Fold this protein.
Amino acid sequence: MLRTILRVGSETASTTIDGFSAVLGSNRIETSLWEQIVFYVSIVLTLFISLFPFYWMVVTSVMPDGAIYSLPPTLVPQEITLDHYRSVFSPETFPFVTYFKNSLIISVITAGLSVVVATFGAYSFARLEYPGRGLFSRGVLMVYMFSGILLVVPLFQVVVWLGWVDSLQSLVITYLVQTLPVSLYMLGNYFRSVPAEIEEAAMMDGYSRLEVIFRVTLPLSAPAIVAVFIYTFMIAWNEYLFASIFLRNQAVYTLPIGLDALSSGFHQVWGQIMAASLMTSIPIIVMFVYLEKYMVEGLTFGAVEG
Amino acid sequence: MSVRNTLQPLLNREKLTLQQKEALLGYALIGPAILLVAAVILYPVVYNVYLSFTEVPLSPDQSPVWVGIQHYETLLTSSAFWGALWTTVLFTFFSDTLATLGGLAAALLFNRTFRGRRLARGLMLLPYVAPLIAVAYVWQWVLDPLYGVVPWLFSDVLNLYSEQIDLLNNQLTAIWMVIAFDAWRYFPFAFLMLIARVQSIPKDMYEAARIDGAGKLAQFKDITLPELKYVLATVFLLRWIWNFNKFADIWLLTRNVRTLPIYAYQTAFASYEMGQAASISMILFVALMGFVLVYVGTVLEW
Protein backbone atom coordinates (compact mmCIF):
# COMPACT_ATOMS: atom_id res chain seq x y z
CA MET A 1 0.00 0.00 0.00
CA LEU A 2 2.74 2.41 0.96
CA ARG A 3 4.68 1.46 -2.11
CA THR A 4 1.74 2.55 -4.23
CA ILE A 5 1.71 5.87 -2.44
CA LEU A 6 5.38 6.36 -3.14
CA ARG A 7 4.99 5.59 -6.79
CA VAL A 8 3.02 8.81 -7.05
CA GLY A 9 6.25 10.70 -6.51
CA SER A 10 7.38 9.52 -9.91
CA GLU A 11 4.76 11.61 -11.67
CA THR A 12 7.28 14.32 -12.37
CA ALA A 13 9.41 11.70 -14.08
CA SER A 14 6.62 10.51 -16.33
CA THR A 15 6.02 14.00 -17.68
CA THR A 16 9.26 13.39 -19.56
CA ILE A 17 7.44 10.65 -21.42
CA ASP A 18 4.76 13.21 -22.22
CA GLY A 19 7.47 15.44 -23.56
CA PHE A 20 8.60 12.73 -25.95
CA SER A 21 5.14 11.91 -27.20
CA ALA A 22 4.54 15.63 -27.72
CA VAL A 23 7.67 15.82 -29.86
CA LEU A 24 6.64 12.76 -31.85
CA GLY A 25 3.13 14.16 -32.06
CA SER A 26 1.63 10.73 -31.51
CA ASN A 27 -1.32 12.07 -29.52
CA ARG A 28 -2.16 14.98 -31.73
CA ILE A 29 -2.33 13.43 -35.18
CA GLU A 30 -4.81 10.69 -34.43
CA THR A 31 -7.42 12.73 -32.56
CA SER A 32 -10.31 14.03 -34.63
CA LEU A 33 -11.81 17.48 -34.26
CA TRP A 34 -14.82 15.97 -32.49
CA GLU A 35 -12.60 14.29 -29.92
CA GLN A 36 -10.75 17.55 -29.39
CA ILE A 37 -14.03 19.34 -28.65
CA VAL A 38 -15.20 16.66 -26.20
CA PHE A 39 -11.81 16.75 -24.50
CA TYR A 40 -11.68 20.50 -23.99
CA VAL A 41 -15.30 20.67 -22.87
CA SER A 42 -14.54 17.99 -20.26
CA ILE A 43 -11.47 19.88 -19.01
CA VAL A 44 -13.43 23.12 -18.73
CA LEU A 45 -16.29 21.35 -16.94
CA THR A 46 -13.93 19.68 -14.45
CA LEU A 47 -12.20 22.96 -13.70
CA PHE A 48 -15.56 24.73 -13.38
CA ILE A 49 -16.74 22.24 -10.75
CA SER A 50 -13.44 22.46 -8.88
CA LEU A 51 -13.11 26.21 -8.99
CA PHE A 52 -16.61 27.68 -8.86
CA PRO A 53 -16.76 27.63 -5.03
CA PHE A 54 -13.47 29.54 -4.91
CA TYR A 55 -14.69 32.07 -7.46
CA TRP A 56 -17.81 32.48 -5.36
CA MET A 57 -15.76 32.94 -2.19
CA VAL A 58 -13.74 35.76 -3.76
CA VAL A 59 -16.75 37.43 -5.37
CA THR A 60 -18.89 37.32 -2.22
CA SER A 61 -16.08 38.75 -0.11
CA VAL A 62 -15.88 41.91 -2.25
CA MET A 63 -19.59 42.51 -2.97
CA PRO A 64 -21.72 44.94 -0.95
CA ASP A 65 -24.44 43.28 1.16
CA GLY A 66 -27.15 44.50 -1.20
CA ALA A 67 -25.66 42.47 -4.03
CA ILE A 68 -24.88 39.41 -1.88
CA TYR A 69 -28.48 39.05 -0.71
CA SER A 70 -30.29 39.44 -4.00
CA LEU A 71 -32.20 37.16 -6.34
CA PRO A 72 -31.23 36.17 -8.94
CA PRO A 73 -27.68 36.01 -7.52
CA THR A 74 -25.17 38.56 -8.80
CA LEU A 75 -22.76 36.29 -10.64
CA VAL A 76 -20.44 39.07 -11.76
CA PRO A 77 -20.05 41.89 -9.21
CA GLN A 78 -21.02 45.34 -10.49
CA GLU A 79 -19.60 47.15 -7.51
CA ILE A 80 -16.57 46.28 -5.42
CA THR A 81 -16.14 47.02 -1.74
CA LEU A 82 -13.53 46.15 0.90
CA ASP A 83 -15.99 46.65 3.79
CA HIS A 84 -16.02 42.96 4.72
CA TYR A 85 -12.24 42.87 4.94
CA ARG A 86 -12.30 46.03 7.05
CA SER A 87 -14.67 44.48 9.57
CA VAL A 88 -12.74 41.18 9.59
CA PHE A 89 -9.58 43.08 10.46
CA SER A 90 -11.09 45.40 13.06
CA PRO A 91 -10.62 43.76 16.46
CA GLU A 92 -13.83 45.22 17.97
CA THR A 93 -16.13 43.23 15.70
CA PHE A 94 -14.21 40.00 15.24
CA PRO A 95 -10.83 38.86 16.63
CA PHE A 96 -9.72 37.39 13.31
CA VAL A 97 -6.16 38.65 13.69
CA THR A 98 -5.85 36.94 17.10
CA TYR A 99 -7.11 33.64 15.68
CA PHE A 100 -4.80 33.95 12.72
CA LYS A 101 -1.84 34.60 15.01
CA ASN A 102 -2.74 31.65 17.27
CA SER A 103 -3.03 29.31 14.29
CA LEU A 104 0.24 30.56 12.85
CA ILE A 105 2.09 30.10 16.16
CA ILE A 106 0.75 26.59 16.68
CA SER A 107 1.37 25.51 13.10
CA VAL A 108 4.92 26.86 12.90
CA ILE A 109 5.95 25.44 16.29
CA THR A 110 4.41 22.05 15.48
CA ALA A 111 6.03 21.91 12.05
CA GLY A 112 9.42 22.99 13.43
CA LEU A 113 9.36 20.44 16.26
CA SER A 114 8.16 17.76 13.89
CA VAL A 115 11.13 18.36 11.61
CA VAL A 116 13.55 18.03 14.55
CA VAL A 117 12.00 14.94 16.17
CA ALA A 118 11.33 13.21 12.85
CA THR A 119 14.78 13.96 11.43
CA PHE A 120 16.55 12.36 14.39
CA GLY A 121 14.13 9.44 14.51
CA ALA A 122 14.20 8.80 10.79
CA TYR A 123 17.98 8.92 10.70
CA SER A 124 18.07 6.38 13.49
CA PHE A 125 15.72 4.08 11.53
CA ALA A 126 17.51 4.55 8.24
CA ARG A 127 21.18 4.38 9.14
CA LEU A 128 21.91 3.06 12.63
CA GLU A 129 21.91 -0.60 13.65
CA TYR A 130 20.47 -1.63 17.00
CA PRO A 131 18.23 -4.32 18.45
CA GLY A 132 14.53 -3.45 18.28
CA ARG A 133 14.83 -1.13 15.29
CA GLY A 134 12.45 -3.13 13.09
CA LEU A 135 9.90 -3.37 15.88
CA PHE A 136 10.00 0.38 16.52
CA SER A 137 9.69 1.36 12.87
CA ARG A 138 6.79 -1.00 12.20
CA GLY A 139 5.14 -0.03 15.49
CA VAL A 140 5.28 3.66 14.62
CA LEU A 141 3.57 3.03 11.28
CA MET A 142 0.80 1.09 13.04
CA VAL A 143 -0.06 4.31 14.85
CA TYR A 144 -1.22 5.70 11.49
CA MET A 145 -4.28 3.45 11.93
CA PHE A 146 -5.63 5.20 15.03
CA SER A 147 -8.00 8.04 14.20
CA GLY A 148 -8.52 11.29 16.05
CA ILE A 149 -11.99 10.32 17.19
CA LEU A 150 -10.59 7.26 18.99
CA LEU A 151 -8.12 9.43 20.91
CA VAL A 152 -10.30 12.41 21.65
CA VAL A 153 -12.02 11.16 24.81
CA PRO A 154 -8.95 9.77 26.62
CA LEU A 155 -6.76 12.70 25.54
CA PHE A 156 -9.35 15.14 26.82
CA GLN A 157 -9.26 13.40 30.21
CA VAL A 158 -5.47 13.62 30.26
CA VAL A 159 -5.46 17.28 29.20
CA VAL A 160 -7.98 18.18 31.92
CA TRP A 161 -6.00 16.22 34.49
CA LEU A 162 -2.80 18.03 33.52
CA GLY A 163 -4.60 21.38 33.65
CA TRP A 164 -3.70 22.00 30.00
CA VAL A 165 -7.11 23.19 28.82
CA ASP A 166 -6.65 26.45 26.86
CA SER A 167 -2.93 25.88 26.55
CA LEU A 168 -1.22 25.78 23.19
CA GLN A 169 1.15 22.96 24.17
CA SER A 170 -1.71 20.46 24.39
CA LEU A 171 -2.48 21.07 20.70
CA VAL A 172 1.16 21.26 19.60
CA ILE A 173 1.96 17.90 21.17
CA THR A 174 -1.18 16.24 19.83
CA TYR A 175 -0.56 17.45 16.26
CA LEU A 176 3.13 16.62 16.49
CA VAL A 177 2.46 13.03 17.44
CA GLN A 178 -0.38 12.56 14.97
CA THR A 179 1.93 13.55 12.14
CA LEU A 180 5.05 11.72 13.37
CA PRO A 181 4.46 8.36 11.63
CA VAL A 182 4.22 9.92 8.18
CA SER A 183 7.05 12.37 8.87
CA LEU A 184 9.32 9.54 10.01
CA TYR A 185 8.38 7.49 6.98
CA MET A 186 8.89 10.30 4.46
CA LEU A 187 12.26 11.32 5.91
CA GLY A 188 13.44 7.74 6.46
CA ASN A 189 12.86 6.92 2.80
CA TYR A 190 14.74 9.99 1.74
CA PHE A 191 17.71 9.29 3.99
CA ARG A 192 17.95 5.77 2.59
CA SER A 193 18.16 7.25 -0.90
CA VAL A 194 21.25 9.25 0.08
CA PRO A 195 24.21 6.97 -0.84
CA ALA A 196 25.84 5.55 2.29
CA GLU A 197 29.25 5.98 0.61
CA ILE A 198 28.99 9.76 0.93
CA GLU A 199 28.55 9.44 4.69
CA GLU A 200 31.32 6.85 4.98
CA ALA A 201 33.69 9.10 3.08
CA ALA A 202 32.90 11.95 5.47
CA MET A 203 33.57 9.67 8.44
CA MET A 204 36.90 8.65 6.92
CA ASP A 205 37.73 12.34 6.88
CA GLY A 206 37.23 12.36 10.63
CA TYR A 207 33.63 13.55 11.00
CA SER A 208 31.66 12.04 13.88
CA ARG A 209 28.19 10.58 13.27
CA LEU A 210 26.46 13.73 14.49
CA GLU A 211 28.66 15.90 12.30
CA VAL A 212 27.81 13.68 9.35
CA ILE A 213 24.10 14.13 10.06
CA PHE A 214 24.29 17.89 10.30
CA ARG A 215 26.87 18.61 7.62
CA VAL A 216 26.16 15.94 5.01
CA THR A 217 22.80 14.21 5.32
CA LEU A 218 20.60 17.13 6.32
CA PRO A 219 21.76 19.53 3.59
CA LEU A 220 21.23 16.76 1.02
CA SER A 221 17.74 16.07 2.37
CA ALA A 222 16.37 19.61 2.17
CA PRO A 223 13.46 18.63 -0.15
CA ALA A 224 12.20 15.97 2.26
CA ILE A 225 12.54 18.33 5.21
CA VAL A 226 10.51 20.98 3.39
CA ALA A 227 7.88 18.34 2.54
CA VAL A 228 7.60 17.26 6.19
CA PHE A 229 7.37 20.88 7.37
CA ILE A 230 4.51 21.61 4.96
CA TYR A 231 2.71 18.38 5.74
CA THR A 232 2.71 19.09 9.48
CA PHE A 233 1.90 22.76 8.99
CA MET A 234 -1.20 21.87 6.94
CA ILE A 235 -2.48 19.37 9.49
CA ALA A 236 -2.08 21.91 12.31
CA TRP A 237 -3.60 24.73 10.26
CA ASN A 238 -6.70 22.67 9.40
CA GLU A 239 -7.32 20.76 12.61
CA TYR A 240 -10.73 21.23 14.16
CA LEU A 241 -11.60 18.24 16.37
CA PHE A 242 -8.97 18.57 19.12
CA ALA A 243 -8.95 22.36 19.01
CA SER A 244 -12.71 22.42 19.58
CA ILE A 245 -12.41 20.56 22.88
CA PHE A 246 -8.98 21.58 24.21
CA LEU A 247 -9.69 25.31 23.84
CA ARG A 248 -12.45 27.06 25.80
CA ASN A 249 -11.22 30.64 25.99
CA GLN A 250 -11.87 32.76 22.88
CA ALA A 251 -8.48 34.44 23.23
CA VAL A 252 -6.61 31.24 22.37
CA TYR A 253 -8.92 30.00 19.57
CA THR A 254 -7.36 28.85 16.34
CA LEU A 255 -8.85 29.81 12.97
CA PRO A 256 -11.09 26.77 12.38
CA ILE A 257 -12.91 27.04 15.70
CA GLY A 258 -12.81 30.84 15.63
CA LEU A 259 -14.59 30.96 12.27
CA ASP A 260 -17.02 28.32 13.46
CA ALA A 261 -17.89 30.49 16.48
CA LEU A 262 -18.32 33.53 14.22
CA SER A 263 -20.71 31.79 11.85
CA SER A 264 -22.87 30.27 14.56
CA GLY A 265 -22.94 33.54 16.51
CA PHE A 266 -24.27 35.77 13.71
CA HIS A 267 -26.65 35.50 10.80
CA GLN A 268 -26.30 36.89 7.31
CA VAL A 269 -22.63 37.76 7.58
CA TRP A 270 -21.57 35.79 4.50
CA GLY A 271 -19.47 38.69 3.20
CA GLN A 272 -17.32 38.65 6.34
CA ILE A 273 -17.19 34.84 6.52
CA MET A 274 -16.06 34.61 2.91
CA ALA A 275 -13.42 37.29 3.48
CA ALA A 276 -12.17 35.42 6.56
CA SER A 277 -12.24 32.09 4.69
CA LEU A 278 -10.17 33.56 1.90
CA MET A 279 -7.63 34.99 4.35
CA THR A 280 -7.43 31.55 6.02
CA SER A 281 -6.73 29.93 2.65
CA ILE A 282 -4.04 32.37 1.59
CA PRO A 283 -1.05 30.94 3.52
CA ILE A 284 -1.83 27.46 2.19
CA ILE A 285 -2.40 28.63 -1.37
CA VAL A 286 0.80 30.71 -1.38
CA MET A 287 2.72 27.63 -0.20
CA PHE A 288 1.02 25.56 -2.87
CA VAL A 289 1.95 27.94 -5.66
CA TYR A 290 5.62 28.13 -4.67
CA LEU A 291 6.20 24.66 -3.24
CA GLU A 292 3.77 22.47 -5.16
CA LYS A 293 6.20 19.64 -5.80
CA TYR A 294 7.13 19.37 -2.11
CA MET A 295 3.51 19.57 -1.08
CA VAL A 296 2.22 16.82 -3.34
CA GLU A 297 4.02 14.08 -1.42
CA GLY A 298 2.40 15.16 1.84
CA LEU A 299 -0.97 15.32 0.07
CA THR A 300 -0.74 11.70 -1.01
CA PHE A 301 -0.21 10.77 2.64
CA GLY A 302 -3.37 12.60 3.62
CA ALA A 303 -2.04 15.99 4.69
CA VAL A 304 -5.58 17.32 4.91
CA GLU A 305 -7.25 14.37 6.64
CA GLY A 306 -8.07 14.85 10.29
CA MET B 1 18.10 -8.73 27.08
CA SER B 2 19.91 -7.50 24.01
CA VAL B 3 19.32 -3.92 25.07
CA ARG B 4 21.02 -4.73 28.35
CA ASN B 5 23.94 -6.30 26.57
CA THR B 6 24.41 -3.12 24.62
CA LEU B 7 24.24 -0.94 27.68
CA GLN B 8 26.36 -3.17 29.90
CA PRO B 9 29.76 -1.83 28.86
CA LEU B 10 28.60 1.70 29.57
CA LEU B 11 27.70 0.75 33.11
CA ASN B 12 31.06 -0.93 33.53
CA ARG B 13 32.72 2.25 32.29
CA GLU B 14 34.60 0.24 29.71
CA LYS B 15 35.54 1.74 26.40
CA LEU B 16 32.70 1.36 23.90
CA THR B 17 33.14 -0.30 20.56
CA LEU B 18 32.04 1.66 17.51
CA GLN B 19 29.06 -0.64 17.09
CA GLN B 20 27.84 -0.01 20.63
CA LYS B 21 28.27 3.72 20.16
CA GLU B 22 26.12 3.57 17.04
CA ALA B 23 23.43 1.61 18.88
CA LEU B 24 23.39 4.09 21.76
CA LEU B 25 23.09 6.98 19.32
CA GLY B 26 20.30 5.08 17.57
CA TYR B 27 18.30 4.80 20.80
CA ALA B 28 19.00 8.40 21.73
CA LEU B 29 17.78 9.70 18.38
CA ILE B 30 14.61 7.62 18.21
CA GLY B 31 13.88 8.03 21.92
CA PRO B 32 11.87 11.26 21.80
CA ALA B 33 9.65 9.98 18.98
CA ILE B 34 8.96 6.68 20.73
CA LEU B 35 8.21 8.38 24.06
CA LEU B 36 5.82 10.85 22.42
CA VAL B 37 3.98 8.13 20.51
CA ALA B 38 3.69 5.99 23.64
CA ALA B 39 2.36 8.89 25.73
CA VAL B 40 0.00 10.50 23.23
CA ILE B 41 -1.20 7.52 21.16
CA LEU B 42 -0.62 4.15 22.82
CA TYR B 43 -1.53 5.17 26.35
CA PRO B 44 -4.75 6.96 25.29
CA VAL B 45 -5.79 4.00 23.09
CA VAL B 46 -5.44 1.62 26.04
CA TYR B 47 -7.04 4.13 28.40
CA ASN B 48 -9.96 4.46 25.98
CA VAL B 49 -10.58 0.71 26.22
CA TYR B 50 -10.71 1.05 30.01
CA LEU B 51 -12.94 4.15 29.90
CA SER B 52 -15.45 2.34 27.68
CA PHE B 53 -16.17 0.02 30.63
CA THR B 54 -16.63 2.84 33.13
CA GLU B 55 -18.85 5.74 34.09
CA VAL B 56 -16.66 8.87 34.00
CA PRO B 57 -17.59 11.50 36.60
CA LEU B 58 -17.70 15.15 35.52
CA SER B 59 -15.20 16.25 38.12
CA PRO B 60 -11.63 15.32 37.17
CA ASP B 61 -10.78 14.63 40.84
CA GLN B 62 -13.00 11.55 41.01
CA SER B 63 -11.89 8.37 39.31
CA PRO B 64 -14.06 6.46 36.80
CA VAL B 65 -16.50 3.85 38.16
CA TRP B 66 -16.39 0.37 36.63
CA VAL B 67 -19.70 -0.59 35.02
CA GLY B 68 -18.69 -3.60 32.92
CA ILE B 69 -20.20 -4.00 29.46
CA GLN B 70 -23.18 -1.77 30.26
CA HIS B 71 -22.28 0.86 27.65
CA TYR B 72 -21.98 -1.74 24.92
CA GLU B 73 -25.36 -3.23 25.87
CA THR B 74 -26.92 0.23 25.75
CA LEU B 75 -25.50 0.79 22.29
CA LEU B 76 -26.53 -2.52 20.79
CA THR B 77 -30.14 -1.93 21.82
CA SER B 78 -30.26 1.73 20.83
CA SER B 79 -31.75 2.72 17.51
CA ALA B 80 -29.68 5.93 17.52
CA PHE B 81 -26.51 3.82 17.41
CA TRP B 82 -27.68 1.55 14.59
CA GLY B 83 -28.91 4.60 12.69
CA ALA B 84 -25.51 6.25 13.06
CA LEU B 85 -23.72 3.09 11.94
CA TRP B 86 -25.91 2.87 8.85
CA THR B 87 -25.36 6.57 8.09
CA THR B 88 -21.61 6.05 8.43
CA VAL B 89 -21.60 3.15 5.97
CA LEU B 90 -23.84 5.02 3.53
CA PHE B 91 -21.73 8.17 3.71
CA THR B 92 -18.43 6.29 3.45
CA PHE B 93 -19.51 4.08 0.57
CA PHE B 94 -20.92 6.82 -1.64
CA SER B 95 -18.37 9.53 -0.91
CA ASP B 96 -15.54 7.03 -1.40
CA THR B 97 -16.94 5.60 -4.65
CA LEU B 98 -17.67 9.03 -6.13
CA ALA B 99 -14.26 10.42 -5.18
CA THR B 100 -12.46 7.38 -6.61
CA LEU B 101 -14.45 7.41 -9.87
CA GLY B 102 -14.04 11.17 -10.18
CA GLY B 103 -10.30 10.82 -9.67
CA LEU B 104 -10.17 8.04 -12.28
CA ALA B 105 -12.06 10.14 -14.82
CA ALA B 106 -9.77 13.11 -14.19
CA ALA B 107 -6.65 10.93 -14.44
CA LEU B 108 -7.77 9.53 -17.81
CA LEU B 109 -8.62 13.04 -18.98
CA PHE B 110 -5.19 14.36 -18.02
CA ASN B 111 -3.34 11.44 -19.60
CA ARG B 112 -2.30 13.46 -22.67
CA THR B 113 -0.47 16.63 -23.42
CA PHE B 114 -2.28 19.89 -23.93
CA ARG B 115 -1.52 23.54 -23.51
CA GLY B 116 -1.87 24.59 -19.87
CA ARG B 117 -1.79 21.04 -18.52
CA ARG B 118 0.39 21.91 -15.52
CA LEU B 119 -1.76 24.89 -14.57
CA ALA B 120 -5.00 22.93 -14.98
CA ARG B 121 -3.61 20.13 -12.82
CA GLY B 122 -2.62 22.58 -10.08
CA LEU B 123 -6.02 24.30 -10.15
CA MET B 124 -7.82 20.97 -9.97
CA LEU B 125 -5.99 20.16 -6.72
CA LEU B 126 -7.33 23.31 -5.03
CA PRO B 127 -10.41 21.75 -3.37
CA TYR B 128 -8.10 19.24 -1.69
CA VAL B 129 -5.42 21.75 -0.72
CA ALA B 130 -7.55 24.63 0.59
CA PRO B 131 -8.31 24.68 4.33
CA LEU B 132 -11.38 22.68 5.30
CA ILE B 133 -12.97 25.53 7.19
CA ALA B 134 -12.86 27.77 4.11
CA VAL B 135 -14.35 25.27 1.67
CA ALA B 136 -16.98 24.07 4.16
CA TYR B 137 -18.25 27.63 4.56
CA VAL B 138 -18.36 28.31 0.82
CA TRP B 139 -20.46 25.18 0.43
CA GLN B 140 -22.76 26.32 3.23
CA TRP B 141 -23.15 29.66 1.48
CA VAL B 142 -23.60 28.16 -1.99
CA LEU B 143 -26.34 25.89 -0.53
CA ASP B 144 -27.99 28.66 1.54
CA PRO B 145 -31.77 28.18 1.14
CA LEU B 146 -32.56 31.88 0.63
CA TYR B 147 -29.71 33.34 -1.41
CA GLY B 148 -27.52 30.35 -2.33
CA VAL B 149 -26.60 29.79 -5.98
CA VAL B 150 -27.39 26.08 -6.04
CA PRO B 151 -30.95 26.30 -4.65
CA TRP B 152 -31.55 29.25 -6.98
CA LEU B 153 -30.41 27.29 -10.04
CA PHE B 154 -31.97 23.92 -9.25
CA SER B 155 -35.13 25.04 -7.52
CA ASP B 156 -36.09 28.48 -8.83
CA VAL B 157 -34.82 28.17 -12.40
CA LEU B 158 -34.90 24.44 -13.20
CA ASN B 159 -37.71 23.56 -10.77
CA LEU B 160 -36.06 20.25 -9.86
CA TYR B 161 -37.19 20.36 -6.25
CA SER B 162 -39.47 22.38 -4.00
CA GLU B 163 -38.02 25.66 -2.76
CA GLN B 164 -39.31 24.82 0.71
CA ILE B 165 -36.44 22.38 1.16
CA ASP B 166 -33.33 23.60 2.97
CA LEU B 167 -30.76 21.18 1.52
CA LEU B 168 -28.44 21.21 4.57
CA ASN B 169 -31.15 21.20 7.22
CA ASN B 170 -33.32 18.50 5.75
CA GLN B 171 -32.70 15.00 7.13
CA LEU B 172 -33.13 13.39 3.71
CA THR B 173 -31.02 15.73 1.62
CA ALA B 174 -28.27 16.69 4.11
CA ILE B 175 -26.44 13.36 3.81
CA TRP B 176 -26.30 13.67 0.01
CA MET B 177 -24.90 17.18 0.31
CA VAL B 178 -22.19 15.87 2.64
CA ILE B 179 -21.44 13.04 0.21
CA ALA B 180 -21.22 15.49 -2.70
CA PHE B 181 -18.97 17.78 -0.65
CA ASP B 182 -16.59 14.99 0.29
CA ALA B 183 -16.45 13.60 -3.25
CA TRP B 184 -15.71 17.11 -4.54
CA ARG B 185 -13.03 17.71 -1.95
CA TYR B 186 -11.27 14.35 -2.20
CA PHE B 187 -11.40 13.36 -5.86
CA PRO B 188 -8.05 15.17 -6.38
CA PHE B 189 -6.49 12.71 -3.93
CA ALA B 190 -7.62 9.77 -6.08
CA PHE B 191 -6.44 11.70 -9.13
CA LEU B 192 -2.93 12.16 -7.65
CA MET B 193 -2.66 8.48 -6.79
CA LEU B 194 -3.97 7.30 -10.16
CA ILE B 195 -2.34 9.67 -12.66
CA ALA B 196 1.17 8.27 -12.16
CA ARG B 197 -0.05 4.74 -12.73
CA VAL B 198 -2.15 5.74 -15.76
CA GLN B 199 0.85 7.40 -17.36
CA SER B 200 3.06 4.39 -16.81
CA ILE B 201 0.84 2.08 -18.90
CA PRO B 202 2.95 1.43 -22.04
CA LYS B 203 1.56 3.26 -25.05
CA ASP B 204 2.27 0.33 -27.38
CA MET B 205 -0.33 -1.78 -25.56
CA TYR B 206 -2.98 0.59 -26.87
CA GLU B 207 -1.24 0.65 -30.25
CA ALA B 208 -1.43 -3.13 -30.50
CA ALA B 209 -5.07 -3.14 -29.39
CA ARG B 210 -5.95 -0.57 -32.04
CA ILE B 211 -4.29 -2.66 -34.75
CA ASP B 212 -6.39 -5.60 -33.56
CA GLY B 213 -9.45 -3.40 -34.05
CA ALA B 214 -10.34 -2.76 -30.38
CA GLY B 215 -12.44 0.34 -29.79
CA LYS B 216 -11.90 2.94 -27.05
CA LEU B 217 -14.23 1.15 -24.67
CA ALA B 218 -12.59 -2.22 -25.18
CA GLN B 219 -9.16 -0.64 -24.67
CA PHE B 220 -10.35 0.87 -21.39
CA LYS B 221 -11.90 -2.38 -20.18
CA ASP B 222 -9.11 -4.73 -21.24
CA ILE B 223 -5.98 -2.61 -20.77
CA THR B 224 -6.57 0.41 -18.52
CA LEU B 225 -8.75 -1.20 -15.84
CA PRO B 226 -6.63 -4.34 -15.28
CA GLU B 227 -3.49 -2.19 -15.10
CA LEU B 228 -5.11 0.10 -12.54
CA LYS B 229 -6.83 -2.59 -10.50
CA TYR B 230 -4.51 -2.55 -7.50
CA VAL B 231 -3.98 1.16 -7.26
CA LEU B 232 -7.76 1.69 -7.55
CA ALA B 233 -8.33 -0.82 -4.77
CA THR B 234 -5.71 0.89 -2.62
CA VAL B 235 -7.19 4.34 -3.16
CA PHE B 236 -10.62 3.01 -2.30
CA LEU B 237 -9.28 1.45 0.90
CA LEU B 238 -7.40 4.58 2.04
CA ARG B 239 -10.40 6.77 1.38
CA TRP B 240 -12.63 4.26 3.15
CA ILE B 241 -10.46 4.42 6.28
CA TRP B 242 -10.31 8.20 6.24
CA ASN B 243 -13.98 8.77 5.40
CA PHE B 244 -15.21 6.23 7.95
CA ASN B 245 -13.48 8.30 10.66
CA LYS B 246 -14.41 11.71 9.19
CA PHE B 247 -15.60 14.20 11.72
CA ALA B 248 -14.90 17.85 10.89
CA ASP B 249 -15.95 17.71 7.21
CA ILE B 250 -19.46 16.65 8.16
CA TRP B 251 -19.74 18.64 11.37
CA LEU B 252 -18.75 21.95 9.74
CA LEU B 253 -21.16 21.54 6.83
CA THR B 254 -24.28 20.47 8.67
CA ARG B 255 -25.35 19.28 12.11
CA ASN B 256 -28.00 17.05 10.54
CA VAL B 257 -25.94 14.06 9.51
CA ARG B 258 -25.07 11.82 12.41
CA THR B 259 -22.30 9.34 11.61
CA LEU B 260 -20.57 7.36 14.35
CA PRO B 261 -17.71 9.87 14.88
CA ILE B 262 -20.27 12.64 15.28
CA TYR B 263 -22.40 10.50 17.56
CA ALA B 264 -19.32 9.82 19.73
CA TYR B 265 -18.40 13.52 19.80
CA GLN B 266 -21.90 14.60 20.81
CA THR B 267 -22.12 11.90 23.44
CA ALA B 268 -18.80 12.96 24.94
CA PHE B 269 -18.94 16.73 24.71
CA ALA B 270 -22.64 17.63 24.55
CA SER B 271 -24.08 14.98 26.91
CA TYR B 272 -20.80 14.53 28.83
CA GLU B 273 -21.13 10.75 28.86
CA MET B 274 -17.44 10.05 28.32
CA GLY B 275 -17.63 6.32 29.06
CA GLN B 276 -20.46 5.86 26.58
CA ALA B 277 -18.54 7.88 23.98
CA ALA B 278 -15.45 5.74 24.52
CA SER B 279 -17.51 2.63 23.76
CA ILE B 280 -18.82 4.22 20.54
CA SER B 281 -15.31 4.99 19.31
CA MET B 282 -14.23 1.45 20.25
CA ILE B 283 -16.99 -0.03 18.10
CA LEU B 284 -16.08 2.40 15.31
CA PHE B 285 -12.49 1.18 15.47
CA VAL B 286 -13.37 -2.51 15.60
CA ALA B 287 -15.86 -2.18 12.73
CA LEU B 288 -13.27 -0.39 10.63
CA MET B 289 -10.56 -2.96 11.41
CA GLY B 290 -12.96 -5.75 10.50
CA PHE B 291 -13.71 -4.12 7.17
CA VAL B 292 -10.03 -3.51 6.43
CA LEU B 293 -9.09 -7.13 7.18
CA VAL B 294 -11.87 -8.54 5.01
CA TYR B 295 -11.09 -6.08 2.23
CA VAL B 296 -7.36 -6.74 2.29
CA GLY B 297 -8.02 -10.48 2.23
CA THR B 298 -10.57 -10.51 -0.58
CA VAL B 299 -9.94 -7.52 -2.83
CA LEU B 300 -6.22 -6.96 -2.44
CA GLU B 301 -5.62 -10.74 -2.09
CA TRP B 302 -2.78 -10.36 0.42
